[in-house]
Design brief:
The complex is a heterodimer of chains A (290) and B (314). Chain A has 290 residues and is mainly alpha-helical. Chain A has a single domain, classed as MetI-like (MetI-like fold, Orthogonal Bundle). Chain A is built from 12 helices and no strands. The longest helix of chain A is centred in the middle third of the chain and has 37 residues. Chain A is elongated. Chain B is mainly α. Chain B has a single domain, classed as Orthogonal Bundle (MetI-like fold), CATH 1.10.3720.10. The chains are: A mainly alpha (290), B mainly alpha (314).
Chain lengths: 290, 314
Amino acid sequence: MSASALPEAVRGARPGALLFRRFAARKAAVAGLVVVALFVLLLVFAPLLAPYDPIATSWSAIRQAPSWFHWMGTDEDGRDVLSRVLFGARASLLAGVISVGIAASAGVPLGLLAGFAGGATDAVVGRLVDAMLACPFLILAIALAAFLGPSLQNAMIAIGLAAMPVFARVARGATLDTMTHDYVEAARALGNPPWRVMLRHVAPNIVPPVLVQATLAIASAIIAEASLSFLGLGQQPPSPSWGSMLNSAQRFLTQAPWLAVFPGLSIFLVVMSFNLVGDGLRDALDPRSD
Amino acid sequence: MNGRIGPRLAQVVPTLLLVSLLVFGLQQLMPGDPALLLAGEDQDPAVVAEIRHQLLLDRSLPVQYLHWLGRLLHGDLGYSWRLHQPVAALVTTKLPVTAQLAAMAFLIAVGIGVPLGVLAATRKNRPLDYLVSGVGLAGLSTPTFWLGIMLILLFSVQLGWLPPSGYVSLFDNWRQSLATTIMPAFVLGAAISATLMRHTRSAMLGALGQDYVRTARAKGLGEVAVVLRHALRNALVPVVTLGALELGTLLSGAVLTEQVFSIPGFGKLIVDAVFNRDYPVVQGVVLVTASAYVLLNLLADLLYVLINPRMRGL
């Protein structure tokens, strides 16, 4: 058998390149990534792309249907819906990424420590995670946002804290899995101190499952931010957010149905894309999926 | 079997205690002094001090917690600051509304999710499988409240078939009750049907690859009988237990759905409480929800052991 007939993994291709190729083979996941990238561009260039000021009211343009001048129509204060959807992308995507950042930076070290140390540490962390997971995600986020006070910043903290236990659980599972490998045993046998084994040999190997979890969690966090803003517990008026736009749209369903369509479609598109990327990453990282 | 149930039961107590500690801890996140908030505009220091004394806010945190826990164990969930009623009474009046909604939603979710999952699994990697999986992913990506708004737009505003909001109890007028709850129940069920569909599909794919399915086919049984009587029956074991875990999604979804359709249930209770800064009600609802979830998780685990013959000998 010639060397080229061997599977890539055996020939020792770089894991990053291999992952990239396996991910690129999944069309739906690539499409998802493209849409996510587009929304990131919209987020960055919102001030240049938005045709109007998203918070400037205009009494002469109240609740106008979509037209050449206002592609997505105007809202109850005469504000341009397209401009608000563009700026709303900032609130939604930033909330998604920052709250998942909070969740991962609190949950992953906790899970890593619990899995690595075992014993009493594991038991205490395990019960804490169980207790937090016992509260349905959104209800916990609502309660936290309620006690912290309504604002986008507090909504991000609330969503981050509510999503934290899942990261702890994923990191713990991956740590336990990694620790069964010989190289961890070898690192210990060489006399490395436990913290070094944990950080240098175990931690890098739990990154893939945490990355998949993070991508899928961003999708849930975006929905959670929209939900909190819809309830009035997230982004406060007049700053635009997709959830709060839907809240006010609900009052004008008969007169201005377009107000409810575009922010919802944007949430749907972004969340679906993150879900596709997450599913694709998971499949690409799973050697059994081929 | 007993060897598995014992430790599982023992886990519930510390989990519930920690839940109570978390819910108690929520109070500490609150900016400002609850006594000042309660005193309202009449901020006579003597009145504030009296309220602080009544709420035990002048005692240490452990004392406050133990006192609160002691009352909880006697079924006292606290007293609503705004509605001037015991929280336990509020919860018991609102619970049947949400329970009706949740039960209807669950039936809809099972009615859509399980058949679609079976269909997708039997047509693996064919157009129908892709279509069903795609619809499932779309279902998971649609915010509950937006789906609700879109349905109101179609069925109430455009077609005028269903009332856009309100609630009539099943015992007062069942026709009206169904008319007011069918849309919210569908919205709530749709989110869970997508998850159930995914679970059913993967469980069915596992079951269809098993030896007993091959044996059933070799006996000359028709494909429908093989799929429904042999594969589905076994595939349903994980689906049933995973389905029970969807209660959390159901309760979270109920908060938003009840808000969209103005249904006076459990979800609306917590949202109104949040806006009225009625913290005892928020705490009470979170505590009841979390405890119900812990107990249902336990039930799902026990159910799994009971209906899965392979677990019985353990």
